[in-house]
């Protein structure tokens, strides 16, 4: 016996070397070796099993830990972790591993945690996996080989020492004794016997290897019924029988004493699973499940059902005449095998075999949602139908995903739902099966331009593909009605679409071309005559029948001249957006946040190849999605939004691509975008095939114009490569010097790469004028930023086109226009028609010789004009002066006065004051020499964190600047003052109040360095800085009134109030504020120029 143990020891050393080869731990080798060690040690009745246990300290708590060199990872019981979390910091980490036990079963765990602990006075940190249940009351933690290897620990068993670096720590052994009471053998006959002697510690569990009788060794599975004993617990269970005729189970010691089980002890009986009677669900008192699987239809019965359920009323052929209708209907009824109206008659194919490979094998389970009461009857019927058709089956899988019921859109009063399985968690761990889907634009180009079209739609397409038996359990789902798993390819899995496209490609790839195309389950067939359509329909029907695929007769469209396919209307004239998509675009609300903007752009990108210069038009909206940009829906964004709606409403139509005709590519580039158009000729006229546009990046906008032209050619040819490669085409451009620069030898590297790419194509370069180049217009058609040159921005109601339309409809203005056309001399003295805009204009004298022309506003646009002009909420006179600069209508002053005096916001936020007239002080200085500054704030309701306003007023010209600032630090104030001085020159004096940030050392040094005299106003006497305080009152009132209507950025809010104020002509002043400051700037520039010239 000693020799045998010695041999085993030497073999063990060899096995350890094998396990630790290359510094890595082989989990499988460790498990196999540990199991062999247990068996060998158990065979030696004279040997004792010593378990090294050490105390781990966590703050105030202490737990016993087993040092297990055979365990590859460290484990902790959930009860111990809960106590440790109360006093210590525990870090949860993400780990995806599989932990195997001795019998090669997977050990489930909750999570993985990093925990710090002490052994003696030394701190350690280790990763522990938290098991789902407690396994022992003797020790709560297992320190595995990962901890031993990480800290280079040596176990000194004879001295019971743990050696770590140069420190040693003691541990104690839990040693079984042979004098422990043993369990008496079962006196009854039994078919299960213990293989080895086993000692079980008090209140702990051990793994037992049991030998079954020879009569059961051929059984694959057996049911184990243990013997009854109060001291130990063994659960009834079903086991796999290994090649040696053994099963493995777990025994637990319920006592406080050690228990030894002797070899060959009888521990129960086993039964065959075929003879064992299990209780059915009907044996319980619970409500019986009414859902049963009835899948007994044969292939002939399914064919008969298809014939019976199909009738002529299922097909909509009212658009055809009687002859065509009878011919098509005969063809459809003859091919009844390819039509299905129910799940039972659905097609089923194994032409492809989907595979669902998971990144790990941990079962994923989700808690089911309760089924809404309103959908409960539908859910029961739907599951029953799927069971009867064999599309799903009852499941006992460890995987479980929830189902939800989504209400369908329906014109009928009856509620309809769609059952959806939520596979998002499964999709996150499923290996992707990638396949290239066809481009929708390519399909539309090839298929459009024909006379007749048909669209076929497969019935529940994914349900027609069989699943592998090994994958069914991974896709199981649960509900209140039970657990089920699909037998066909389900909806919702991320690999369902690629596998279905693989099937339909295998089925119809032989017929794919200019007359037959498909995109997933939608098949389109084109023809120029009914006979051609019949022939091609029969080809498709035959191939679908060969693959046992079926169509939905209620969804197919047969022999139409105008058909909807993939969101587009296709006809002989080309293709354009469908009516449904046009309605979606026109009814899309104005975006309120970045997420809405992204949804809108995602919808519009579907039509970008139909839209002139799409990138340029939507640029203001795209800018809102950039990182760090605050969301402000500006006038530019609204204009772009309106333009896109107008374009889609006009149904842009693209003709089909004709391979027999030559191709023309025209390109152009502006400062902000580039554009390319692929053209073909119909006689002498060009028509577009597709549009391409691209916004330029900041670095690309810095290119010289000649390089941008070349870049536009490069990007245009690259985008249309599939059309241009391998055939000759004509390149149309309006840059004469481009052809010269393309032949130069010295070019930047990036230009060389572009030219090298273009060498693969065959083309002629033809020069055309910019006015004849449509791409030139598209690249420059930019929605410019709002420039305050008209004082305020007019909306769509006051656009020239709308004013012209309203003038023609208004009785008064239309009469004046009529008299002008009749050349009435009296009328022509006061009114005329502008030759450029076509608007009715009013002549008014200003001064002795000056005549001003104003736009005549018809009566129905007066209120719109007043709303825009009164946006800053100024008084009657300023609003009137504001409007009369550009517009005229009879009784204008009276209308302005009535509107301003009845403005609700003004009445709420502008208290009545008694006007006190003061004389205007005499100015002994020039514009820009005496400034008054102050800060308004802190302001609320700002979306860009600009919570203060720095105001600067010039005492001579009264020119006001209000600058939004985020804070009142000295550096911020100095930075903005420097910017003001760079435009208007240095002042001699600056007047401010006595607030701290205007008296800081930085501000004082700044003034001294520029030789500016700093004057301070009197405390508690606002009149000492009266100009600025009066300006603040107007500014605050206007800002409050404006902010009540919208929340916007501070710069936008100020632009509606400050810029108009600088254009007003105050009583007693000859020039407007802004004009005086501009004259001052010219004086400064002239002074600099003369001084520079003299030097």
UniProtKB/TrEMBL annotation:
List GO terms (cellular component aspect).
DNA polymerase complex
- For the keyword Ion transport, the answer is no
GO biological processes: DNA integration; proteolysis
Q: Which domain of life is it from?
A: Eukaryota
| Keyword ATP-binding attached | no
**Where does the chain cross the membrane?**
1069-1090
Renumbered to this chain, region (Disordered) spans: 1-21
Keyword annotations for this protein, in alphabetical order, are: DNA integration, Endonuclease, Hydrolase, Magnesium, Membrane, Multifunctional enzyme, Nuclease, Nucleotidyltransferase, RNA-binding, RNA-directed DNA polymerase, Transferase, Transmembrane, Transmembrane helix
State its Enzyme Commission number(s): 2.7.7.49
Give a single Pfam family match.
rve
Domain Reverse transcriptase positions: 388-570
Top-tier EC class: transferase
Q: Residue spans with biased composition (Polar residues)?
A: 1-10
Where the record annotates domain Integrase catalytic, the positions are: 923-1039
A single Gene Ontology molecular function, please?
aspartic-type endopeptidase activity
Show the ranges annotated as biased composition (Basic and acidic residues).
11-21
What protein name applies here? RNA-directed DNA polymerase
Q: Which gene encodes it?
A: pol_690
């Amino acid at each position: 016996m000693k020799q045998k143990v010695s041999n085993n020891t030497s073999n063990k050393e060899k096995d350890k070397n094998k396990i630790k080869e290359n510094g890595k731990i082989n989990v499988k080798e460790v498990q196999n070796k540990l199991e062999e060690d247990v068996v060998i040690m158990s065979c030696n009745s004279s040997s004792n099993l010593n378990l090294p246990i050490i105390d781990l300290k966590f703050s105030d708590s202490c737990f016993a830990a087993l040092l297990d060199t055979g365990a590859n990872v460290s484990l902790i019981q959930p009860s111990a972790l809960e106590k440790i979390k109360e006093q210590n910091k525990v870090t949860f980490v993400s780990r995806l591993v599989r932990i195997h036990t001795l019998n090669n079963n997977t050990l489930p765990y909750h999570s993985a945690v990093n925990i710090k602990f002490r052994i003696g006075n030394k701190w350690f940190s280790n990763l522990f996996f938290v098991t789902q249940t407690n396994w022992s009351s003797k020790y709560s933690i297992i320190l595995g080989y990962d901890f031993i290897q990480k800290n280079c620990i040596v176990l000194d068993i004879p001295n019971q020492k743990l050696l770590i670096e140069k420190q040693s720590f003691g541990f104690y052994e839990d040693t079984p004794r042979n004098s422990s009471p043993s369990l008496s053998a079962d006196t009854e006959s039994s078919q299960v016997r213990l293989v080895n002697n086993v000692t079980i510690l008090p209140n702990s569990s051990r793994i037992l290897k049991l030998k079954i009788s020879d009569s059961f060794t051929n059984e694959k599975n057996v049911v184990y019924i243990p013997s009854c004993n109060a001291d130990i617990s063994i659960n009834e269970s079903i086991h796999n029988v290994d090649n040696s005729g053994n099963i493995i189970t777990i025994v637990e010691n319920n006592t406080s004493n050690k228990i030894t089980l002797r070899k060959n002890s009888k521990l129960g009986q086993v039964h065959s699973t075929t003879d064992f009677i299990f209780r059915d669900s009907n044996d319980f008192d619970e409500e019986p499940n009414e859902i049963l699987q009835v899948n007994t239809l044969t292939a002939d019965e399914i064919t008969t059902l298809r014939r019976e359920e199909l009738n002529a009323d299922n097909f909509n052929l009212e658009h055809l005449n009687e002859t065509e209708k009878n011919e098509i209907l005969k063809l459809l009824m003859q091919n009844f095998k390819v039509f299905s109206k129910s799940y039972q008659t659905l097609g089923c194919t194994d032409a492809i075999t989907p595979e669902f490979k998971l990144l790990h094998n941990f079962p994923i389970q989700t808690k089911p949602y309760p089924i809404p009461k309103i959908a409960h009857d539908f859910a029961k019927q739907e599951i029953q139908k799927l069971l009867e058709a064999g599309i799903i089956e009852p499941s006992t899988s460890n995987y479980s995903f929830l189902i939800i019921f989504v209400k369908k859109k329906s014109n009928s009063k009856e509620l309809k739902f769609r059952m959806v399985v939520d596979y998002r968690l499964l999709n996150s761990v499923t290996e992707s099966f990638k396949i290239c889907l066809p481009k929708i634009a390519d399909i539309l180009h090839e298929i459009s331009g024909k006379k007749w079209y048909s669209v076929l739609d497969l019935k529940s397409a994914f349900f027609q593909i069989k699943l592998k038996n090994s994958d069914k359990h991974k896709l199981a789902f649960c509900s209140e009605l039970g657990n089920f798993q699909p037998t066909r390819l389900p909806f919702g899995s991320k690999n369902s679409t690629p596998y279905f496209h693989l099937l339909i490609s295998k089925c119809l790839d032989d017929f794919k071309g200019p007359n037959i195309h498909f995109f997933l389950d939608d098949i389109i067939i084109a023809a120029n005559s009914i006979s051609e359509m019949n022939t091609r329909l029969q080809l498709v029907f035959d191939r679908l029948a060969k693959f046992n695929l079926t169509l939905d007769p209620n969804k197919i469209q047969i022999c139409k001249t105008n058909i909807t396919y993939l969101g587009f209307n296709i006809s002989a004239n080309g293709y354009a957006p469908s009516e449904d998509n046009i309605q979606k675009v026109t009814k899309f609300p104005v975006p309120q946040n970045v997420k809405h903007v992204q949804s809108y752009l995602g919808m519009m990108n579907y039509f970008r190849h139909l839209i002139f210069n799409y990138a340029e038009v939507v640029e203001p909206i795209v800018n809102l999605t950039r990182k760090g940009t605050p969301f402000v829906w500006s006038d530019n964004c609204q204009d772009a939004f309106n333009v896109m709606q107008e374009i889609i409403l006009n149904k842009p139509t693209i003709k089909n691509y004709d391979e027999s005709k030559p191709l023309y590519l025209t390109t152009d580039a502006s400062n902000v975008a580039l554009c390319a158009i692929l053209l073909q000729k119909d006689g002498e006229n060009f028509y577009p095939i597709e549009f391409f546009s691209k916004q330029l990046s900041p670095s690309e906008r810095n290119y010289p114009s000649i390089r941008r032209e070349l870049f536009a050619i490069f990007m245009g040819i690259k985008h249309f490569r599939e059309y241009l490669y391998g055939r000759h085409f004509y390149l149309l451009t309006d840059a004469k010097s481009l052809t010269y620069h393309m032949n130069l030898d010295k070019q930047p590297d990036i230009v060389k790469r572009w030219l090298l790419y273009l060498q693969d194509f065959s083309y002629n370069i033809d020069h055309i004028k910019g006015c004849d180049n449509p791409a030139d217009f598209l690249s420059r058609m930019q929605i410019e930023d709002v420039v305050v040159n008209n004082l305020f921005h007019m909306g769509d109601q006051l656009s020239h086109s709308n004013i012209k339309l309203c003038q023609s409809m208004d009785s008064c203005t239309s009469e004046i226009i009529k008299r002008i056309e009749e050349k009435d001399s009296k009328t022509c003295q006061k009114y005329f028609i502008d030759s450029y805009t076509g608007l009715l204009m009013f002549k008014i004298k200003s001064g002795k010789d000056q005549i001003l022309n104003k736009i005549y506003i018809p009566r129905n646009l007066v209120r719109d004009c007043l709303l825009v002009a009164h946006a800053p909420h100024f008084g009657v006179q300023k609003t009137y002066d504001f409007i009369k600069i550009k517009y005229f209508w009879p009784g204008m002053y009276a209308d302005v006065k009535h509107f301003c005096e009845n403005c609700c916001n003004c009445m709420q936020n502008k208290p009545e004051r008694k006007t006190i007239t003061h004389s205007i002080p005499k100015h002994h200085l020039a514009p820009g020499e005496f400034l008054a500054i102050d800060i308004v704030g802190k302001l609320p309701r700002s979306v860009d964190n600009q919570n203060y306003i720095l105001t600067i007023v010039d005492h001579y010209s009264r020119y006001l600047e209000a600058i939004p600032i985020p804070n009142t630090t000295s550096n911020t104030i100095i930075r903005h003052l420097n910017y003001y001085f760079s435009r208007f020159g240095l002042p001699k004096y600056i007047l401010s109040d006595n607030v701290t940030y205007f008296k800081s050392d930085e501000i004082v040094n700044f003034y001294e360095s520029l030789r500016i005299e700093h004057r301070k106003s009197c405390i508690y006497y606002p009149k000492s800085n009266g100009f600025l305080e009066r300006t603040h009152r107007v500014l605050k009132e206007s800002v409050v009134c404006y902010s009540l209507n919208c929340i916007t950025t501070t710069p936008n809010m100020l632009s509606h109030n400050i810029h108009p104020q600088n254009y007003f002509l105050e009583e007693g002043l000859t020039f407007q504020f802004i004009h005086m400051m501009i004259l001052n700037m010219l004086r400064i520039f002239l002074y600099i120029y003369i001084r520079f010239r003299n030097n």
